[in-house]
Design a protein that fits this description.
Layout (H helix, E strand, L loop, with lengths): L1 E5 L6 H18 L6 E6 L5 E2 L5 E2 L3 E2 L9 E4 L12 H10 L5 E4 L4 H6 L7 E2 L6 H7 L4 E2 L4 E4 L2 E4 L4 H14 L1 H10 L15 H6 L4 H12 L7 H7 L4 H12 L3 H19 L4 H7 L5 H12 L3 H8 L2 H23 L1
Helix pairs in contact: 1-5, 1-6, 5-6, 9-10, 11-13
């Protein structure tokens, strides 16, 4: 399967190297050196200087045709604005998009897709720091703040490391979830994240506060999800009035205390659903939801999936197999006792 990655001068190196390593590892896992073949496309055949100073030679230039290629990915750059009105580049993207089965952008590469008119009326994402400009420049795009977004045959991603999430998702589409998980494990990727996951984890949000007491209460919440985490209790813990605490919390986190607590509990539950076969009732209890119904409502609000649907989609195959064995053993138990 032939993959082309477009790189402009000043490109983020990981936007290129990340997907290339994922596809290379997939070849190893599949024991097929031809499963993925990656070529880098430049504006010309001259060396390209990446943002981090790395210089590399492209395999071809935008004078080439992508007939026979399966996928085109467009890497991003903090200086992407210099190339958004490049007539030859935009015409090439528009033309070659008709030759490939899949088309994707990484980080600010979305602006090149937008200028080619390929995102109009579609859902899309980009790096959080460029989202406002993308929304302003392309009002017909339905922007989503997620790791990656698939709309038809077009994919867009958030910044840098999200390039590897996208590449893993493409490997999963092509060769199944077990292969993608083996690739992720070999590359020591902490988690194969679903595309609908927000760009920031709640743990990263907790570390961003510049006010010590608010940062401390963020960390305390994350370590005590089963405690009473009402606004009144949290404010008392910091010896603040409820009103002042809520105001400072919202200013620092851009979330209300209630939203932060629910997001933290959902994130903890999500990881348990992915990493274990713990019953849903116990997952709810361990993550601070008094009842399983509360877990379900929170998941629907934040993930647009029920916990059961989430587990079915994102739990590793080994846990699914273990669950099936346990279920079969439970079903066979009464029959065996009756037979004896």
């Amino acid at each position: 399967m032939r993959v082309a990655i477009l790189a402009v001068p000043g490109v983020q190196m990981l936007d290129i190297a990340g997907p290339m390593d994922v596809f290379s590892e997939a070849n190893t896992v599949l024991r097929d050196s031809d499963a993925y073949s990656v070529q880098i496309i430049g504006l010309s055949c001259d060396p390209i200087a990446a943002l981090n100073g790395t210089r590399f030679l492209p395999d071809a230039s935008i004078d080439c045709s992508l007939e026979g290629f399966d996928t085109l990915l467009i890497a991003g750059s903090p200086g992407i604005q210099k190339f958004e009105d490049h007539p030859g580049l935009i015409a090439w993207i528009r033309r070659e998009s008709r030759h490939v089965r899949r088309l994707g952008s990484i980080c600010t590469g979305a602006f090149l897709l937008g200028n080619a008119g390929l995102l109009d009326g579609r859902r899309a994402t980009t790096h959080w720091n460029s989202a406002a400009r993308l929304a302003e420049k392309f009002p017909l795009v339905r922007l989503e703040p997620n790791i990656y977004v698939k709309d038809g045959h077009i994919y867009t991603t958030a910044g840098v490391t999200a390039s590897m999430d996208l590449a893993l998702a493409l490997v999963e589409e092509d060769h199944g979830r077990s292969t993608a998980l083996r690739v992720a494990k070999e590359l020591i990727l902490f988690l194969k994240r679903p595309g609908g996951e927000p760009q920031f984890s709640i743990h990263l949000e907790a570390q961003a506060s510049e006010i010590g007491p608010i940062r401390d209460i963020h960390e305390w919440i994350l370590g005590n999800l089963c405690e009473d985490l009402s606004v009144e209790t949290l404010a008392t813990r910091l010896a603040m009035s409820t009103r002042n605490f809520a105001r400072l919390f919202k200013r620092e986190t851009n979330m209300t205390p209630g939203d932060f607590v629910e997001a933290a509990r959902v994130e903890a539950a999500r990881r348990m659903l992915e990493d274990s076969d713990t019953p849903l009732k116990k997952v709810a209890s361990m993550c601070g939801f008094p009842r399983q119904a509360g877990l379900r409502r929170a998941f629907m609000r934040r993930m647009d999936l029920t916990p059961v649907e989430y587990r079915q989609r994102f739990r590793p195959a080994e846990f699914a197999a273990a669950g099936a064995i346990k279920a079969k053993a439970a079903a066979d138990g009464p029959m065996l006792r009756k037979a004896s």
